[in-house]
Write a structure and sequence with these properties.
About 95% of the residues lie in helices and about 0% in strands. The chain is mainly alpha-helical and about 100 residues long. The relative contact order is 0.03.
């Protein structure tokens, strides 16, 4: 009877060790799968972030070009207005200089 008990205990220990090995293998497998999925999620997130950044960059460039064109047009308009003002006052300036040179009041 003692021999049978020892054999039963031995068999139970072997089954327990096998269960521990199986559990350990399964947990390593799950950790590996989770790590792989985590890496894929990170990679996908980085790709999506890059796509969104590219879109935002494109929008920002387009907005910048619009602002640049508007500023250039406003500058040209201001220069044109100043030229017209200078030309309209040119005759007055010539007359004032002529009076000074000729000594007229």
């Amino acid at each position: 009877m003692a021999k049978e008990t020892m054999q039963a205990v031995n068999a139970a220990e072997q089954q327990a060790q096998q269960l521990v090995r199986t559990a350990k293998e399964e947990s390593e497998k799950l950790v590996s799968e989770a790590s792989g999925k985590g890496s894929k999620l990170i990679s996908d997130s980085v790709k999506e972030a890059r796509k969104r950044a590219d879109v935002l960059l494109g929008v920002a460039r387009a907005d910048g070009e619009k602002i640049k064109a508007t500023a250039a047009q406003e500058t040209e308009d201001s220069f044109s207005a100043l030229r017209q003002e200078a030309n309209s006052r040119k005759a007055q300036a010539i007359e004032a200089v002529r009076k000074i040179v000729l000594g007229q009041s």
